[in-house]
Amino acid sequence: MKINFNELEFEKKDNFNGGNLYYLVKTYNDGLNKIMYGKLVPNASIGIHTHTDSSEIIYVISGSGINICNGIEERLNAGDSHYCKKGETHTFINDGKEDLIFFATVVKQ
Q1: Which of 19, 24, 54, 61 could bond 101 through an S-S bridge, CB–CB 3.0 to 4.6 Å?
Q2: What pLDDT shows up at residue 109?
């Protein structure tokens, strides 16, 4: 199945999960799983949250930022991925000067 993200509109998520500022996201959601193309603007973050019934894989396309998962901080740059397993808690922060563009999938388990 083809998903053309160029045909989807960005949705603005203000203070998502208690994060700073906002992020923009194009989402395909089949009711069970989500596939997302996201943009975190400088100084924005996705607030800390726990994946109670899903896992998430994030792939950074451009920019860089900090991902904190279960208290462990990792810098993610273009080409890096982060895997948040079911039951883990994480946040994603753009501490850079340019937009942080990423692709993410959230899979229910």
Answers
A1: 61
A2: 75
